[in-house]
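Need a sequence for this fold. Nothing fancy.
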């Protein structure tokens, strides 16, 4: 098994008598998208600042890409890309001038810069924005530019703190396509967001509340533990309903007849269940299928309720 891309143990940060982050244990697998979720003031940004070496923890240990962040905070910054809640583009400079400034920090110039920026400019659709100043750009374009600059030096890890805050729905979807492309190329992505539904783009989800970790699992595992399950409604004629109930039954499923057909509630959407639904729908002309997925905001409410009980 590959070493963890991020490994934090007992991570704690106090500000006077206030504990912002309380003994967190975080493990992030290489090449995954890891969501770090919580309400405003829960400790998300404080945690991310410690992980990238901008803030020294009161206690605990942090290893990022094999580097002890507490002992060598500057070394780790060469391996990571970071995008904060406010995109760090300098006003008064054009986007192209910002690119040249950031490239200079990593010793990227000449033909190498031309190749890298040319590819990023096309991928992030920034050609028309290159001569503009950041303060004159729409929010969605500024966010894309921020992510492009965070990846300019080809980091092994990306830390994204509320990357889709303040942008429209279309820009958010495009942004997540770009994040998933980075992960597919082997980059590890650690992302905070207050849009809880965005957790479904991620491989792993950690929930933090009042500085403490209250849930830590893949999205589907959280759904299994903290929701009533998926609800599948299958509209069928009366003659087909008894057979459907028999076909859809299972140890962890609840199947009931409805006025329009049958309804099954299941903790997971496993392959066998989906295949059974597909067969039943194909066998009956006019059959209709409706699937309701447990929403991540509701799961988060249940996680918090259990943690605070």
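Here you go.
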């Amino acid at each position: 098994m590959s070493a963890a891309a991020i490994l934090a143990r007992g991570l704690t940060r106090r500000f006077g008598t206030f504990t912002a982050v309380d003994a967190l244990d975080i493990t992030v697998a290489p090449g995954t998208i890891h969501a770090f979720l919580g309400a405003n003031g829960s400790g998300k940004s404080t945690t991310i600042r410690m992980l990238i070496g901008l803030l020294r923890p009161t206690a605990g240990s942090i290893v990022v890409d094999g580097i002890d962040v507490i002992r060598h905070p500057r070394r780790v910054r060469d391996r990571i890309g970071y995008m904060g809640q406010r995109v760090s583009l300098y006003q008064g400079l054009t986007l192209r001038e910002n690119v040249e400034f950031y490239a200079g920090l990593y010793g990227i110039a000449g033909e190498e810069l031309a190749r890298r920026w040319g590819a990023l400019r096309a991928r992030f659709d920034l050609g028309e924005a290159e001569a503009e100043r950041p303060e004159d750009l729409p929010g969605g374009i500024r966010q894309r530019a921020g992510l492009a600059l965070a990846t300019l030096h080809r980091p092994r890890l990306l830390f994204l703190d509320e990357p889709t805050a303040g942008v429209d729905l279309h820009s958010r979807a495009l942004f997540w396509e770009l994040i998933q492309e980075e992960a597919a190329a082997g980059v590890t992505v650690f992302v905070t967001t207050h849009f809880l539904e965005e957790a479904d783009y991620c491989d792993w989800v950690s929930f933090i509340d009042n500085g403490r970790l209250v849930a830590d699992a893949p999205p589907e595992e959280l759904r299994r533990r903290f929701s009533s399950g998926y609800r599948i409604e299958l509209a069928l004629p009366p003659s087909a309903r008894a057979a459907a109930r028999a076909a859809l039954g299972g140890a962890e499923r609840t199947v009931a007849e409805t006025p329009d057909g049958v309804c099954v509630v299941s903790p997971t959407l496993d392959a066998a269940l989906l295949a059974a639904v597909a067969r039943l729908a194909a066998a009956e002309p006019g059959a209709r299928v409706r699937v309701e997925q447990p929403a991540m905001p509701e799961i988060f409410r249940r996680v918090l309720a259990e943690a605070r009980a």
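For context: The chain has two domains: 6-221, 228-293.
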